[in-house]
């Protein structure tokens, strides 16, 4: 599981078959694999879209919504990209999702790992 937090859409290509093209540097940092299922949420309008990721040119900062999502996501929109994973309940205890933070040019500013707190943890 992973998240690319507050990325900026750089392109929307209505005439492409479908998917989201993501800079390969961002995919690597998040651990997202090409053709992995992702959810994209728009901070501009609340749109929630499900598709698969494809690798874009490394180091260019590209985030391109392809096909029909191009009607809902426009260049300049900020998005959150969430990579899904199917897990067994027993795997949740050791889950450490990766969160990739980016600047307005989709360059990585920080990468963090999160883990679950035990239910009996005191705040």
Structure, explained:
By secondary structure, the chain is mainly beta. The protein has a single domain, classed as Barwin-like endoglucanases. Helix content is 6%, strand content 41%. It is built from 1 helix and 9 strands, in the order E-E-E-H-E-E-E-E-E-E. It has one helix at residues 24-30, and strands at 2-8, 11-13, 19-23, 37-42, 48-56, 63-66, 78-83, 98-102, 108-113. The chain has a 9-stranded mixed beta sheet with strand order 2-6-3-5-4-7-1-8-9. It is globular and about 40 Å long. It starts with a strand and ends in a 10-residue tail after the last strand. The model has no long low-confidence stretch (mean pLDDT 92).
């Amino acid at each position: 599981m992973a998240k690319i937090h507050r990325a900026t859409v750089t392109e929307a290509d209505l005439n492409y078959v479908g998917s989201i093209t993501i800079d390969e540097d961002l995919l690597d940092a998040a651990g997202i694999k090409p053709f992995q299922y992702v959810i994209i949420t728009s901070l501009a309008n609340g749109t929630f879209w499900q598709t698969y990721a494809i690798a874009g040119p490394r180091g260019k900062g590209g985030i391109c919504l392809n096909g029909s999502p191009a009607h809902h996501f426009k260049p300049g929109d900020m998005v959150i990209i969430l990579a899904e994973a199917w897990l067994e309940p027993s795997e949740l205890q050791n889950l450490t999702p990766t969160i990739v933070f980016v600047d307005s040019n989709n360059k990585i500013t920080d990468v963090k790992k999160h883990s679950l707190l035990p239910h009996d943890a005191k705040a």
